[in-house]
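Worked Example 4.2. Consider the chain below.
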Amino acid sequence: MGSELVRAGHLERRAIVYVRQSTPNQVLNNQESLRLQYGLRQRAHELGWREPDIEVIDCDLGLSGAAAAHRAGFKDLVARVTLGEIGIILSIEVTRLARNYSDWYPLLDVCGHRECLIADRDGVYDPGTPNGRLLLGLKGTISELELHTIRGRLTAGLLAKAQRGELEQMLPAGLIRDASGAVVKDPNREVQERITLVFECFLSVRTAAKVGRTLAARGLTLPRRDRNGDIRWQRPTLANVTSMLKNPAYAGAFVRGRSKQLPAALSGGRIKRSRPSGTDWKILVKDKYPAYVSWRTFEQIQSMLRDNRASASASRTDGTTRLRTCDSRLL
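Applying the procedure from the previous section yields the following structure tokens:
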């Protein structure tokens, strides 16, 4: 079935079938959607394109359409439309191309300027005409709203579970989930004793650096969980000791929001995370895990760590001031 919008000038250029699914899980489990998307090659045939002139772009499989920065296939598509190489873009629905205004409307602009058509399962559209741009604009608006709606539902569900302390998170070394899903202490006694020793040692020597030196002098390592969830024994660095002392899970508390993502404008375009100071967290539910220290002791430790940091900062400032004063006297 053809379309009156397809002209000879369009057929002289290539037809691009853009295939995308949002997550790797969808790619693996939603095969019917993939079949329908790849089946758009036949739709291009029906519109008049020859087989050698039909091309599939599917390198964005498993990537969200919320942004284009990480989608090489979409950026290549826009570049080729700009060069006038493409006569039509076929997608099962416009949500596959983009789910936000900042990506969708520039694509419509360049397609309209280069007389490139856009087709989905509902029909063929010419972005260069008022009616075509209106319909595609509405589809793009609905697509972005749908993304916010889906995200809002998922976030609300996660937030509700987190407020009850039931959201599953990566547990630190020393805590595991049993077969029923309940959080218990690691049955490995050496792991338990080493974690307890860190807290006891800190309360005795009062600084994380001294804890690290004490453990290192005794040839002791610390249990740490890697990104795969496995326990690895590592040397007691200042970072390892401080991370353990600041983790509220060891005081039996479920916490959500220990770090927050900085806006790209404030982080040089890269994803960076910052940690709120003290116990200024979004969600705190006490007595959810078996504790290695009481909550009162944990708060005491956090206060001591803050005092140590403040003292160290003051010492550095005083040292700089004294150095500058000495330099001025020499001058």
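The chain has a mean pLDDT of 86. The longest helix spans residues 295-330. Compare this with Example 4.1 before moving on.
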